[in-house]
Design brief:
four-stranded antiparallel beta sheet, 2 domains
């Protein structure tokens, strides 16, 4: 198995001052040892906050560089996520510096009420014997420091696992429960393919609930909980989380490719334990065809809802009238583009004005089950309206 170090964090000086690359590692010996020195083998299930400081070694209160940044788990939900941090461009004096790294759980830091940006502690106490944070209630979950000398191209910093469980405790229940989701393909209504040549390993899957902002709805990455692909044989993602959702729970799916647009599949929050949640992957080609049919040259900032009426075998069905509880719908025809008063054989409809939380009902020969959707900024909200008794999607 390939072992992975945390990797390098680069910063570019604004005025040509030589600034090092920061290379992070995990402690493998002595005190504050981590579960593994391989970042891929150490879980990071919840968001964290990283503090990067460069201070005067003889006068730690004199700070030459300081950055406090929120870090989200990557698709694998492991400590390699820490290498995603981009440092601010800032000049650093040509002198010896104490370079300090600390990683906190969300519960350990304050947040600016106006910007929601994290506010890291001003100072960190490090042990002179180990170089790791002093073990005390205010200590970070991980941390370490070392010294930069003028002319150094890189600075290697080993992080001790001072209180590693604190990070995952921020979003994991004391009573272990699991949130799980499956993902099917919009075009085939079959589970996405798995394995080395499959799609599953290229999907980022998370769960969250959109909230209102400036008159519309948003679901920012920081408000979603990442799930991890269980294995390479089944298109199922999960995490031992216990998030609280007030009205709706959505599965957010985005493909790891350029210009990918996230898709949401939502349902009303059920009472009790969450069931296995349905997510949906929409290929870029299919989305482009929909936008072209609507004479849209680019994806609308406010988002779009794309829905489908399906029968008991998950096939699109014609001659159904879709009625949203708010807003309007447009029917798409495979041969004639938008228009008409009911679905064609594809079963597809779209809405560009239904607000999030809209219920979409369909009437026709068979009874159907309404779906929930509506606009969420920057995302495609997928709505499936199935026949009563249809195969679950």
């Amino acid at each position: 198995m390939r072992r992975a170090a945390l990797g390098a964090i680069a910063v570019t000086a604004a005025c040509g001052t030589p600034v090092p690359q920061l290379r992070l590692g995990l402690a493998g010996t002595a005190s504050q040892i981590c579960p593994s020195t391989d970042c891929m083998a150490v879980q990071m299930l919840c968001d964290a906050v990283m503090s990067i400081r460069m201070v005067d070694p003889s006068e730690p209160s004199k700070t030459y560089f300081s950055q406090c940044v929120r870090v989200q788990p990557d698709r694998k939900s492991d400590m390699c996520s820490l290498r995603s941090v981009d440092l601010d461009q800032s000049p650093v004096p040509v002198r010896n510096l104490d370079v300090q790294i600390a990683v906190y759980s969300l519960s350990q830091v304050a947040f600016d009420p106006r910007t929601n940006d994290p506010i890291c502690p001003d100072a960190i106490a490090f042990s002179t014997a180990t170089g790791y944070p002093v073990e005390q209630p205010s200590a970070p979950a991980l941390g370490g420091h070392t010294y930069y000398h003028p002319g150094d191209d890189t600075v290697d910093i080993t992080l001790g696992c001072t209180n590693l469980p604190a990070i995952n405790a921020a979003c994991v229940s004391e009573t272990p429960r699991s949130v799980a989701a499956t993902v099917v393909d919009f075009d085939t209504r079959l589970p996405v393919t798995v394995g080395p040549l499959g799609i599953a390993d290229h999907l980022w899957v998370s769960v969250g609930e959109p909230h209102m902002l400036d008159g519309g709805y948003v679901l920012n990455p920081r408000d979603a909980f990442p799930l991890r692909l269980d294995n390479e044989q089944v298109a199922r993602w999960s995490a031992p989380l216990s998030p609280a959702f007030s009205k709706y729970v959505c599965v957010d799916v985005v493909e790891d490719e350029a210009e990918a647009t996230p898709t949401l599949r939502c349902l009303p929050t059920p009472a009790g334990q969450l069931p296995e949640l349905p997510g949906m992957r929409l290929s870029r080609g299919t989305l482009q065809n929909v936008l072209k049919s609507l004479s849209l040259s680019e994806f609308p900032d406010e988002g779009i809802t794309i829905g489908m009426v399906v029968d008991t075998l998950a096939r699109g069905v014609s001659d159904y009238v879709v009625t949203p509880s708010a807003g309007t719908v447009t029917y798409l025809s495979a041969t004639q583009g938008p228009g008409g008063t009911k679905t064609d054989a594809s079963g597809i409809f779209v809405s560009r004005d239904a607000p999030f939380g809209t219920k979409f009902a369909a009437s026709g020969l068979n009874q159907t089950v309404p779906g929930v959707g509506g606009l969420v900024a920057g995302k495609v909200t997928i709505v499936i309206v199935p026949f009563v008794g249809a195969t679950a999607l």
